[in-house]
Amino acid sequence: MKKDIPLNEKHLKITSQLFSLTSVIIIIVSSALTGFLLFSNSTLFYRLIELLFGRIPYVGNMAYYYVKSMNIVNFNVLFEQAFKPLMMVDILYFFIPLLFFEIIIIIMKRYIMKHDHAFLTALLLIIIQGSILLTVNNNLILTHHIDSSLFELKNTLVRCMFVIQLILSFVLLYRLRNLNRFNLSQLFSHKAAKRLIHSGSIVVVIIFSLLATSLIFANNYVKTVEQNLKVDYVINLKPTADGLVHLNVPEKITKPLNMIGVSFPKEINGSMLTDQFGITEIDAGSMINNFVHTKVNLLTYRFLQVPLANASLSIFFLVLIFILEAVTQKVKDHATILYHIQWVLSAIIYFSVSKNFGTVINILSGLVFLGTSIHLIAYWKTNKKLLGFIQTVKDKWKHPKQA
Question: Which residue ranges run through the membrane (predicted)?
Answer without folding.
Answer: 18-39, 51-67, 87-107, 119-136, 156-176, 196-218, 303-324, 336-353, 359-380
